[in-house]
Amino acid sequence: xxxxxxxxxxxxxxxxxxxxxxxxxxxxxxxxxxxxxxxxxxxxxxxxxxxxxxxxxxxxxxxxxxxxxxxxxxxxxxxxxxxxxxxxxxxxxxxxxxxxxxxxxxxxxxxxxxxxxxxxxxxxxxxxxxxxxxxxxxxxxxxxxxxxxxxxxxxxxxxxxxxxxxxxxxxxxxxxxxxxxxxxxxxxxxxxxxxxxxxxxxxxxxxxxxxxxxxxxxxxxxxxxxxxxxxxxxxxxxxxxxxxxxxxxxxxxxxxxxxxxxxxxxxxxxxxxxxxxxxxxxxxxxx
Length: 287
What we know:
The protein has 287 residues and is of the alpha/beta class. It has ten helices and eight strands.
């Protein structure tokens, strides 16, 4: 059996909370979805929950303390996903870029408070037609990453930049990811490997792991059958080759966390069984 911690994402409870509590504040919805995910994870013996932080919770001091205390009291390990909706740390607009960086810094600070193992954050996206005028986005992404790493040298939390799907037009190809990860000052930056994002780019997972396995600090398991979108379909219902991914994790002795990142708590539980069977050399889907 695998030695990796296997977790679920708190957003898996978000839509259920919205359905059950349609009239409450968004910050409270985010808090209650994280709470539900943690309680579910404990009930079904997950190793951790990746807490999806976002505003207004992240900017609400009282609610943030409430969440911190709940996580500490429950005692289940957590990782953190920084806010990404409407944010881009590679934006050509310095105001958007600065606001995006502030959100990443807030997420890292919260992660340290709850002793998270990793923080995942997104690079943003290249926007047409500005993407054709020089390469502002690459330069600003590198500058933002350098600022993050300077602010958190030798961090106890793995700081993980997630590979992006094809529609984001940045940090999706192996060549560009290698180019960024090899830059001076970014040697302590980790990667979050998202299987669905990788599928949309038509890049070769074998080549990705061969080139970058020593920098992967987090794995997101998501299935897909489309090249132009990322609907987070249940594991085994798309075209992502999870048997090969299980082989790569074993081959390279990947030692870090594996997250089942879906839109339903039940599908996270089912997806964990599916992938555990693959890691153990089985193929059958187990409920």
